[in-house]
């Protein structure tokens, strides 16, 4: 029997999740999200994403899983997700929540209640395989996305 193991890369350790959110997972491995300075350059975030790529690949291999929840600072999430998609067959899981708002004495309080998981499977990786213009030795997740192709520093004419 294959165990259903989730790699949780976020600032929300699974110990703080309610039982409903943990339900269905045989094991959840928490990987602390890095502290990223607001002053960090794109290249710093990219380098950190590469460090995490190696860490996540190792954990996934060790635990025989490809299931990842990745949430946090947007530029890092984007960079790491692009690297993971380019690297291999990973499935990304996202918790969905129901927002319950109450108002008392003019103060609104929001409570987010877990509703379920959404999965975006590795079949999205095929889009990245369409990139004939990737000519750098190191994949750059900060490259621009345009019509399914990553454009590098030079303008590239795409025949239609």
Fold and architecture overview:
The protein has 160 residues and is an alpha/beta fold. It has one domain. The chain is built from 4 helices and 7 strands; from the N terminus they run E-H-E-H-E-H-E-E-H-E-E. The strands form 2 sheets. Strands 2-1-3-4-5 form a 5-stranded mixed beta sheet. The protein has a two-stranded antiparallel ribbon with strand order 6-7. Helix 2 crosses helix 3. The longest helix has 22 residues. The C terminus is likely disordered.
Helices and strands, with pairings:
Layout (H helix, E strand, L loop, with lengths): L4 E6 L8 H4 L4 E6 L9 H22 L3 E4 L3 H14 L3 E14 L2 E14 L4 H5 L14 E3 L2 E3 L9
Parallel strand pairs: 1-2, 1-3, 3-4
Antiparallel strand pairs: 4-5, 6-7
Helix pairs in contact: 2-3
Radius of gyration: 18 Å
Residue windows where pLDDT falls under 50 for at least 5 positions: 126-137, 141-160
Question: Quick one: biggest sheet?
Answer: 5 strands, mixed
The oligomeric state is single chain
> How many beta strands in the DSSP annotation?
7
Shape: globular
The total tally of domains equals: 1
**Strand residue content:** 25-35%
Number of helices, counting only DSSP H or I runs of 4 residues or more: 4
Task: Give me the side-by-side strand order of the main sheet.
Answer: 2-1-3-4-5
Instruction: Provide the structure class.
Output: alpha/beta
Mean of the pLDDT scores? Answer: 81
Q: Give the N-terminus to C-terminus distance in angstroms.
A: 47 Å
What portion of residues is helical? Answer: 25-40%
- Reading the helices and strands in chain order gives EHEHEHEEHEE
